[in-house]
Amino acid sequence: MNVLILGATSPIAQAVAHEYASHKHDIFVACRKQERADEIASDLVLRHDVRALGAAFDATNLDAHADFIAHVEEEFGPIDVALVAFGDMGQQEESQQDISAARKIIDVNYTGAVSLCEAIAEHMLTRKSGSILGISSVAGDRGRQSNYIYGSAKGAFTLYLQGLRNRCFPNGVHVLTAKLGFVDTRMTEGLDTKIPIASPEQVGRALYNAQQGKKDVLYYPRFWAGIMGVIKAIPEGLFKRLKL
Ligand SMILES: NC(=O)c1ccc[n+]([C@@H]2O[C@H](COP(=O)([O-])OP(=O)(O)OC[C@H]3O[C@@H](n4cnc5c(N)ncnc54)[C@H](OP(=O)(O)O)[C@@H]3O)[C@@H](O)[C@H]2O)c1
Question: CATH no. for residue 45?
Answer without folding.
Answer: 3.40.50.720
